[in-house]
Amino acid sequence: MNNDGEPLMIKRPVWGLIFGLALLASLLIGSGGVYAQTPPSLPEEYTWQVYGLSIHYPSNWTVVEQENLISFHPADRDVSDGQGPELVLFVVLDADALDTLISTYAGQINGTTSDVVADTLEGRATRSFTYNQTDPATQGAVLLIEFENQTVLGLAYIVRSSEAKTFLPLLEAMHGSVSFGTVSDTGVGSGISLGGQARNMQTYQDAAYQYTLSYPRTWVLEPGETQGEITLHPQDVDISAGNGPEFVILVLSDPSITGLDQALDVLLEGQPGEFSERLAGTLDGAETRFVTYSNPDRDPSQNGAVYMIQHSEGVILVAGYRAITDVFSQYEPTFESIRQSIHLLSAPAFTSETISETVSSVRLDQPFEWEAAGLTLYFPGDWTVEAEDADGAMTLFAQPESLDALAPIQMVQASAMPWAEGLDLRELAESTIGSASTIGAVEEVTVAGYEGLAYDFVDGEGDDALHFQGLMLVVEDQNLMVLILFGTPESDWKEFRPLVNAIIASIERNDGGVSSRLFPIRADAYWIGATPTPVLQGGSTYTWEDYGITVQLPSDWQAVPGNGQEYDLALVSPA
Q1: Rounded distance, CA 425 to CA 86, Å?
Q2: What mean pLDDT value characterizes the chain?
Q3: Given CB 3.0 to 4.6 Å as the disulfide criterion, which of 42, 159, 179, 517 pairs with 84?
């Protein structure tokens, strides 16, 4: 303690944070700078005359017209492999309801998707989402527009993740330039230039840190010098004086960061103005803190806010906004709309840090063969596991043997039920969530060779809130769908999560098939190469030092290092 009775840890600076926090602190004192970027140039205009739909595109791109589909891509690029860079307009005739159709497209994405955004385009209902695919590594977006007579117009774009920095701003600008003219009796549209507000908001997706947000079409997005950092502000406002109005996202990445509260302590210490109490929350499974401030003594006086998101271990995303007091109320709704649109595209529960923590610190000594589902799961030795197969109900329940009154509640509950072709797994997953608040994206996973979905949600509020992680698998050879729910109070989820991931990683087939305990990566071995060089022959213990993972290799197996792209490490069985 110091002489004022305050903890010394709050007064002691964390030097690893100083540089990054200084950038954010400029929001509070008004001395920040921005990194200018010329908005994408879209001088050409194309009008799809049958529907009166207009779009702007770069002069060095070409337009290819096909029946019910229009393709835009760079004139010197072959996009026949379907990985872009390309934007297409298309039409769906006799279409399903808009929500059903957008869910169908989202379900076909081999990767993660953002939440579906319901909006309007010049009075017509729209649905849209962004996506990030892993195989092949591509990014893009899909927009559906309700036209008339069960006709839906669509826009979709795609680009390789490796080229996203070059082409994504262009594709997003084209996406935002869409507008309607009028359709005459002959089916010819007049076309409208960019001056018309085609959509109120447009979407930005960050490739480096996997977050997405929406911002007004009338605002400019300027990237910072560091990946993941951006500045947003109205097109017609000069923010060089440090008065705003502006919305920024900064990245604090340093091993010395021990949490959001410590980062806020360092940021706010010594800053002028008045600050609200910090509000704790969650965003897609990640912890958050939110603080508003006012600085009436500054000339001109200024208001603003700081929003911190614990992106991953040692990495914090910081959103901040500000404007001078006289106009702050005018911009605050827009600021809050942008802040509340932020989403993380990768659920924190499935990061490599979590997997490393799981393998190195959790012991699963108790295998349990769930005969009804054809699966074996591994649990801690001090857990009780029960299964029932009566009256057609195939269930499993597991929990710690000793339920001390002071110990957190932890449970695993599973059900197996008949599976029929044509069922929509994503719809079934969403039905298990019900009215609960989803905090993690529904992600495609493969466990023990079976494809499925994983997702997080919270049921209840305050002290009564329970955090669940669901795993839904299609066990095709058994004609079953298996649902496994892991649950604990929301306040205890961080401690329970490593055990959850370990149990999921332990699942294997009873028939001796692929085990996800040994193969968290793809099971087929064609990508290893013709002449792999083993780092260890079987019959002894191998430790993967980078992650603290230790495995015991059978006598005729090998451990083979990868190149860090297709794979990092393979455990290879004999041919």
Answers
A1: 30
A2: 73
A3: 159
